[in-house]
Amino acid sequence: MAVSNNITACITFLVLLCTVPIAATGVWLASAHGCSRLIIAQWPVAILGVLLFLVALVGFLGAYRNRRGLLACYLFAMAALVTLLLALIVFAFAVAHADGAYPALGRAYDDYRLEGYSPWLRRYVAGDPERWEGIRACVAGSGTCRKLAMDSSFIVPEQFYMTRLSPIQSGCCKPPTVCGFTYAGPTTWSAPAANPAADADCAAWSNDPAQLCYGCDSCKAGVLGALREQWRKANVALLVAAVALIFVYVIGCCAFRNAQTEDMFRRYKWGNNY
């Protein structure tokens, strides 16, 4: 291969490496444990990452074998996929920006309200009863609340109050703090005689392990809180990988253009020798 082809092949190989964390993040999101993965289709990130990897592989082979047509297709396809990736990252940041967590008075954990999240997420979860029933069944069957109930470290209520609960534990395994329930156990609470400030979730609470607060809006908010945490971690990885990918891709475009110029000059020089 010519020097320019070697440079182009090396750059396309770097692009190939940059697509690996994107594909890995998509696969991690799609296969992540927990019921939050049922809320939103995680597979688009995985599919986009795999497509980026395959296109980058085609570009590397095209540069290595000096197939200009293959390289041109690679540049156009990669530009389209990078644009889709950026659009997906912007969308994910937009829907994961709003936070439904709010501090509970005298507690180390947060309570969660559905109204705090983006309208799109609220509609996606609360607006589809069938989807929520699947998520609710997943939360109930995950054993999250059962494990919390079996935790023997909570000897006095203050120990529970000073525990940092996960969003699902806080939203689904206990009643909202505003209800004013009396602690009897992590998943066992006594209702007050009257609480005019209470919201609808207070009436939905049950000490039945099969019910708890699975029917509460706070449980939906807790699941969204878990999803938000997952997406914020993924967004950081995707953003870093996307910036690196764009940087190397732009360099690759310049190298491809220079290689074409060098090839044209070589042909012109070769033709003048005859």
TrEMBL record:
Range of residues in the leader sequence: 1-25
Bilayer topology term: Multi-pass membrane protein
Cellular component, GO annotation: membrane
Residue ranges crossing the lipid bilayer per the database entry: 42-64, 71-96, 236-259
Keyword DNA-binding found: no
Keywords, ordered alphabetically: Membrane, Signal, Transmembrane, Transmembrane helix
Keyword Transmembrane helix: yes
Domain of life: Eukaryota
Cellular localization per UniProt: Membrane
Pfam families: Tetraspanin
Family from the record: Belongs to the tetraspanin (TM4SF) family.
Matching PANTHER family: TETRASPANIN-8-RELATED
Name of the protein: Tetraspanin-2
